[in-house]
Amino acid sequence: MPELPEVESVVRQLDAAGLGGSVIHRARVFWPRTVAKPSPRSFSRSLAGARFLAPRRRGKFIVLDLEDGRSILVHLRMTGRLTLGKSGAPREPHEQVILDLADGRDLRFRDPRKFGRWYLLDVAEEKLGELGPEPLAASFSSQSLARELAGRRGMLKPLLLNQAFLAGIGNIYADEALFLARLHPQRTADTLSSEQIRDLHRAIRRVLREGIRASGTSLGDASTNYQGVDGQRGRHQFRLKVFQRTGEPCLRCRTPIRRIVLGQRSTHFCPQCQ
DNA sequence: GTCTATGTTTGCGG
DNA sequence: TCCGCAAACATAGA
After folding, report:
1. Protein footprint on strand B: which nucleotides are under 7 Å from a CB?
2. CA A86 – CA A38 distance, rounded (Å)
3. First to last CA, chain A
4. Using CA atoms, how far apart are residues A226 and A70, in angstroms rounded to an integer?
5. What whole-number distance in Å separates Cα of residue A166 and Cα of residue A157?
6. Active-site residue set of A
7. What's the whole-model pTM score?
8. pLDDT single digits (tens) A46-70
9. What are the two backbone dihedrals, phi and then psi, of residue A174, each rounded to the nearest 5 degrees?
10. What is the pLDDT of residues A201-244, one digit of tens each?
11. Is the sign of the CA dihedral A78, A165, A205, A265 positive or negative?
């Protein structure tokens, strides 16, 4: 569920709530596999007393840097969710990790599907280094996108989902960006004109910024959908142009939106203007 | 029971 | 090496 805009929203909410500066009193792991590195035991043991710096984001990772130079990385995957509230509340269903803070609050991780992962690393880059460029960074230009696309003979859509190619894009924003850029999801990546590369670059940034401005996309109404740190829902679902609009008229040309499966992911596009 | 799901990794075959 | 595909992870909702 959460892609770059949702993760960015969570990070901003954690920051606004003053997570930076707070100290971990106790770390508890209830589902061992959630903590990918190190062992859950040493994860818990070595976090007591650690102090957070300001939270940040890289790709779809929430990065919680610690004052001692280490970092906690949280990946929400499909259904992961962080909450920050007063400690002492009974543990809710599907809560896999709880960090009790010295200030009387706790940071909780709830993940019904248990795909989400936590990492405690001496150097954040050992994981973040696998990621491609940040699409919203000033250094991500149309030229750098062109360089990356050159020689890639795969389809555009799966390429946009490849985190080593570009960090942070998921299924929703990939479909939306390709629609905005008027590019077919199955288009071979290295066949774009420089103008189309410019359009794609602009579309990617526009869609992600729009998502952030709307505090993310919350589909459906179930608890497995994206919610912010206080349970806030995003508003970007009302702005989707193709995603989950199968059969509905294209907002540009009225042609019914089509759904196909690419790389095992549903893909929505307008067969007329893409 | 079936199908779908916003993510990522791994292994296979081309 | 690059690419596409299937399965795995584990669960909920339609």
Report:
1. 4-9
2. 27
3. 25
4. 28
5. 12
6. 2-3, 60, 265
7. 0.95
8. 999 999 999 999 999 999 999 999 9
9. -65, -50
10. 999 999 999 999 999 998 876 566 788 999 888 998 899 999 99
11. negative
